[in-house]
Amino acid sequence: MTPSVEHFAYRQRDLLPFIPIELSRAGRSSVVDALVDSGASVNVLPYRVGLLLGADWDELNVSVTLSGNMASEAAKGLILTAKIGQLPSVRLAFAWCRSDSVPVIPGQTNFFQEFDVFISGSRRFIEVAQKNQSGR
Amino acid sequence: MSYDELVPQIALLPRQDKLRLLQVIASDLAHEEGLELVPGETYPVWSPFDAGQASESLLQLLSQDEGDS
Hints:
The complex is a heterodimer of chains A (136) and B (69). In chain A, 7% of the residues lie in helices and 40% in strands. Chain A has 136 residues and is mainly beta. Chain A has one domain (5-130): Beta Barrel (Cathepsin D, subunit A, domain 1). In chain A, the strands form two sheets. In chain A, strands 2, 3, 4, 5, 6 and 7 form a six-stranded mixed beta sheet that branches. Chain B starts with a helix and ends with a helix.
């Protein structure tokens, strides 16, 4: 039976809530470390990861306006398939930035709409569950 | 030196030294906790908070993509 919850320890290097996510698009895939950020309005994808997955900047026509210290970064909407551990794959819409100075960030739209997430800062672990399956 | 002996000594320090002591203690605690933050360093916060317009654009894109597939 497919598990509905996955657990991850904080990344040792900087003790931040990073989780591995397999992103795929058009037959290509890549596993990335993603910084789970409940304060981020949107999912964010750095430029190099989009290129790795075969995305073409000039072919995308939905421009996305970011905010905060990312306000100066040009971004376009890009839909990818995302798989976390053994959880079922979901479609995530990313603000694909034309910059490599940002990490992959799963944010409120739409990572937190697809998964129920529990972060324990004191015990330094993250629990990601298929939505409506966590029992919380 | 015990805590009880130390506190009266700290009270005698000039204001600037008290602030430096605060930094030293904060740095020590962060180190003990495994948080390698260096006082005075700048750490970027990559968080697109309050990006309602971006969120709206992506939701529309998802909805459109769902209609296409």
